[in-house]
């Protein structure tokens, strides 16, 4: 396969994914191999939902829709325009995926294949249904991918380089285990929002999507707010109210009740509205159904703090506050060129 063949295959995959949405699963009979795969993928979505209670229809379809919107010619060409694919030698890339949100390892999967490499995928048991099926579709519409993609639950062998995602604890294991291989090792990161007190209700409503999408389980989920001294949270609570049905989701409600009980027994001060708790805390990683907040008095000091803590932060949501900021409501809509941890995966794969 040449690069254009690989691009064309992923565009077809994007069109395939575009058929699946929460409100309208509409089969497109004109798509290649659709009769073979459409019903089967609907079944895989059902299995993914049954296997992992966090993978609701809403979250699965949001992920599929996001990838469908990303895998179009214009965006793929923009993504790849700065790279040279002529000199890279064929390698086998081992990819160890997390399982916190649906298809969370898909960008690494695409990056390695678009670079021309073979891949050896070790999935999390929490997210094992969707990607293998999409791989079969990809191999059918572009036979050149056959033999280039393998899945395993066994010990990784016969690979040249590694992309591994996990917790801070597993990252230490990864760093030791893969010390002799070129590797990208990803650890825990969280996203934060900086509020300046003049945000509109529309901006705060958009921020609520950054907080609640995927139940806050993703590294791009906002888990911490920085707010001016004496900030009034009334407008914030009004803006996030549209997400109040989330409390009827059993797993979320159980976490809400548990964490609320812990805070009350520990006599921690907190603010809450029946489905979200706000707790003053200097940590970045907050429990489910909780967002931490921290007051600031000086904007420049806060900018310095955020730069100093950059290895703990995935996204900074703000408006005209800091370089590289993400707009309100956009953290869960990354583009192909928005790399996790700001590590250029394709550049790494082409040079190692």
Automatic annotation (TrEMBL):
UniProtKB keywords: NADP
Domain of life: Bacteria
Pfam families recorded: LuxC
Full protein name: Acyl-CoA reductase
Organism encoding this protein: Winogradskyella alexanderae
